[in-house]
Amino acid sequence: MIPAGGGGRPRPSGYARRVIPTLRDTAPAAPGVHARPGRGDLAVRIAGGVVAFVAGAASALVEGLLTPLRLADWPLPVSPVLGAVLGVPLVAYAAWATGSRIGGIAPVVGWFVTMGALATPTAEGDLILTGTGMGVAVFLCGAGSFMVGLFRLSAATRGRHTQMPVTSL
């Protein structure tokens, strides 16, 4: 038995981290043969990337619409918290759904495109995401969360192109 790092439950000596199989793990190729993804597999990967893009855009839309939320005269920081919490799991989902590290960029692109649209004034001068403290906090927390997610994804999968450890994402 090996004790856990910071105390707590001891782990068995053969303890291994759980891994999430990617789409590449579903159909192993014969030894020495490089399998090409079929049309069905490619369609699933593309659909996963589209879903991740839309999820990133939806997260930005919700964050932008909750930015002016107030209780009496006090602004409620719901949007920055959502931005900080949703970025890392969205990147992890996108990488898993597309089967590649580069697929992790899909929700980031959707988020930035939507945030750009929310920060652009209309012809009448209406603006959803303003340059106030809360608007800046939403942008910084969301962008920072996506940055952390992409960094962890690149660090977790370096040298292991088919499996992503659960503990590192």
Q: Any overview of this molecule?
A:
With 169 residues, the protein is mainly alpha-helical. It is built from 4 helices and 4 strands, in the order E-H-E-E-H-H-H-E. The chain has a two-stranded antiparallel sheet. Strands 2-3 form a two-stranded antiparallel sheet. The longest helix is centred in the N-terminal third of the chain and has 27 residues, at 39-65. It is globular and about 55 Å long. The mean pLDDT is 79. It has one domain.
Question: What letter string, H or E per element, gives the SSE order?
Answer: EHEEHHHE
Structural class computed from helices and strand pairing: mainly alpha
Q: Can you tell me the number of structural domains?
A: 1
The strand order across the widest sheet is 1-4
What is the strand tally?
4
Describe the global form: globular
The pLDDT mean sits at 79
- Terminal CA distance reads 26 Å
Helix content range: 40-55%
Task: Summarize the biggest pleated sheet.
Answer: 2 strands, antiparallel
Multimerization status: single chain
* Beta-strand content: 5-15%
Using only C-alpha atoms, the radius of gyration works out to 20 Å
**Total number of helices:** 4
Q: State the low-pLDDT regions, or none.
A: none
